[in-house]
Every structure is written in C-alpha cells, then in structure tokens.
Amino acid sequence: MNADTIISLFLASARKYGDKSAFTYFDGSWKTVPYRKILGWTKAIASYLIESGVKSGDRIAIVSENRVEWCAAYLAIAMSGSVAVPIDAQLGASEVDNLLSDSGAVLVFHSAKTAPAIGDFSRAVNFDSAFFGEVLAAPVRDTYPPCLEEDLASIVYTSGTTGTPKGVMLTHRNFCTDARALKGVNIVGHSDTVLSILPLHHTYAFMCTFLVPLFLGATIT
Q1: Which residues of the chain, if any, have pLDDT below 50?
Q2: Which CATH superfamily is domain 8-215 in?
Q3: Contact, 110 vs 126, CB < 8 A?
C-alpha cells in the first residue's frame, strides 16, 4: 500500500478487483455491488458536485444511516477535492443545523430517514430521491481535481458529551497512515468479508469497516 490518499488507494482497489463484491446488503433480498459499480457511482457523484459549482476545499455533509450510498458519496466528495463532514444520523434538527453552520457546509447528502433533521437546507440531495438516481446515471467527467496527502479529507465532530461538539480536522495522510498500520498486522485480507454495524460517522467504524476493507479489496456487508 504505497499510495497515500483515499482516492488513489480506492482507485487501485477498483482497478484490481473490478468485478469483485465491494458491498453486500439486505434490502428485502441480498444485493451485491461490485467495485466497478462503486467506482462508477463515485465518478458520477463527483461529476455532479463539480458541475454544480462545488469547489476544492468546500465542506459537504453526509447525514444518513449506514448504506452503500453513504460510502459512494464520501468517496465522491474526496474525488471532487471537497471535504466530507460526516454527521450522526440520530441527531435532531437543531443539532444538525448547528454542525452544518459550524462546518460551513455548502451541500448535504441525506436519506429519507434523516430528511426531517435537514429541514430546509438550501442544497440537499436525498439518496432515496429520483434526482439522486439521475445523478448516478449521468455522464461522468474525464478529469478530477488533484488530491494530495496534506489535503483535508474530513471534519469529524466529537460527541459533545462534555461540551459543545468540536470539529476534528483529518487529512488524507492521517487516514492513510492508519490504514497502512492496520494492513501491516494482517488481520483482514482481500478474500475476507467485514461486517459493518457501527455508525460510519465514527472514525473507528469509518477506518475499520469501510476504508481499510475497501483498500484491501475485501467485501463490506
């Protein structure tokens, strides 16, 4: 694992394991999403963000329960050169509004379940909407902004149990250094399946049940 940004590591896995299952999930029946499809979704969402005027460094929030679209949106935010702001899907409208304001988010991805917490935010994209389906089906760009190790990848908010939630700024280097360390202990390999239960807005779950398995070419359930 020599590359050192979230996007470069993901692209390497997508090229190597294109037809392999990246995600499996139950939605009435078991569904499988291969690496090739996640790459296509990532490019489509990133293309939408760029074409809609999102600029490198802009903050984009994700307020949703764990789902494949959450992961694709995060990767697309990174591919567009923006900064992801993962927010707890169980927070109320006033708490979400405070974090959107504090982070300076210009757009928010959400689901039907979390729509009430988003309120009337000016730029919101619902994963469960027909519009989001159109985004995924639209033509994709040939090029995307460069992504560097020192670029900010996420602003992760603390729980706020001892005070006002604080935004922790984490770079691509922060995440990828941890990923290399986890890969080095050989707990998970590309033939494994990793069960994702904990909320992805937590960095522990984000690293251990999303980024590291994805970088290794494993399957996330």
Answers
A1: 1-2
A2: ANL, N-terminal domain (3.40.50.12780)
A3: yes
